[in-house]
Structure formats: C-alpha cells, structure tokens
Amino acid sequence: MVNDNLKVQTGLRVDGFVFDGFKELCKGERMLVGEAVQRLMEACLKAGSVSLILRGEALVDAGERKAEEVEGCFG
Cα separation of 35 and 46, whole Å? Predict the structure, then answer.
C-alpha cells in the first residue's frame, strides 16, 4: 500500500541569505516554505525538467530588464 501523504524531511543545505529571503517572500504571500518548495517541485515534475523551469525564470528576468531599458529611453 502506498501512502500518498508521506512526508520526507530532506535536510537540504542552502545559502542562509537566500533562505531568509525566500521565507520572507513566502510570509508575504501567506504560504509555508514547505508548501512553496513542494509546489516548485511539482511544477518541475509537470514540466519534466528543472532546467526548463529555471530557464523560464531567466526569460522573465531578461524580459523585465529589457522593458526597463525601453522605459528608460522614453522616461
């Protein structure tokens, strides 16, 4: 029998500054850190790729930077 509600404690090691910032983002969005990480993992599984999700983030960042550059030209 498989228990779908099984939780696993991973003990991941991450940069403290990054983790603190992530916790603040989660707090601001009223989301638990574990919930946010799980949803990120689910998005990667759904996409079938971690790199694809990270590339998507990079494309959004690049688009925002480009928009700021264009806005600066007309500001």
Answer: 16
- As for how many domains the chain has, the answer is 1
- State how far the alpha carbon of 24 is from the alpha carbons of 1, 40, 45, in Å: 38, 16, 25
The CA distance from 64 to 29, in Å, is 21
Print pLDDT tens along the chain (75 aa): 455 678 888 888 999 999 999 999 999 999 999 999 999 999 999 989 998 888 876 565 655 655 566 566 665
Question: Which tokens is 33 given?
Answer: 């850190």
- CA–chain centroid gap for 47, Å, is 14
